[in-house]
Amino acid sequence: MNFTDVVSKRYILSGEQIESAQINFLESLEKDGLKIKGPFTYFIEGVDDKYRAVWFMMPVENEIVPEDGNYKFDSYYSIEKAVCCRIKVKDMVKFNDIYNEMENYCLKDDKRICSPVYFVNGADGEEPYYLLKAAVSN
Prior knowledge:
By secondary structure, the protein is α+β, with helices and mostly antiparallel strands. It is built from two helices and eight strands, in the order E-H-E-E-E-E-H-E-E-E. The chain has helices at residues 18-31, 95-108; strands at residues 2-13, 41-47, 52-59, 72-78, 82-88, 112-113, 118-122, 129-137.
C-alpha cells in the first residue's frame, strides 16, 4: 500500500458518528480546494466502550495543503509488508471473524499483525467492497 500526497484527519467519535464524520471529511476536502486522487482509506486507532479514534485518509493531487491545522499531510505514506483481504460491504458485520482469519493466516508464516487494519473503499462496477490491509512483521 503506497500513496503520495496524502491528507488525513483524526476524529474522536462514537460508532454511530463514523458515517457523518466521513461525509464531513470529504466535504471539507472539496471546500478547501483539494483535488481527490483516491482511494479513500480509514483506520480505527483506538476503541473504548463509547468512543473511537478514527483516521480518515485521502490521496490528493495537491502537493501543498492549507496550513490551518485541519489536516495532517504526508508526501508519502506506505505499508510495505501487509496482509490483505477483500470483503463485501455487507460482510463488515463479521469484522472480528475476518480479523481473526487474517491473524491466523499470518501466524502460519510466523508473522504477526503490527498495525491497525486499514479499510480501503473500492468498487469495480460490481458491488462495493472494502480491502482490509494490515502491516505484518516477524
